[in-house]
Amino acid sequence: MKNTDYRKKTLEVLPHKKGAEHPQWKGEKIKYVALHIWLRNNFKKSGVCEFCKEGGKKTAWANKTGEYKRDITDFIELCYKCHWHYDRENNFKHRYENETKNITTRKDS
Prior knowledge:
Elements: H1 3-13, H2 32-42, E1 59-63, E2 75-79, H3 80-89, H4 95-100
Antiparallel strand pairs: 1-2
């Protein structure tokens, strides 16, 4: 049986659950990386920085409050340069850095 056939049959038997219906849903206890995946999957970016108003640049979702809530109104779309300045001006230390600081790499061992 081909992989695609297996996938179709599995999806027929086990319907794909999204959001709060999914067994691994974390709600407001979401972590940094998962929150950014949620943003990418649920909200389309315009490609225009909300600060410098330049279009055609790569943009990212920047957190407004540092609380990392599952709420689109707590994010703004900024180009990488403005995002970097915004985080430093507001003394935001990314939760991602805190989540991964205890992970050892081959260089560390």
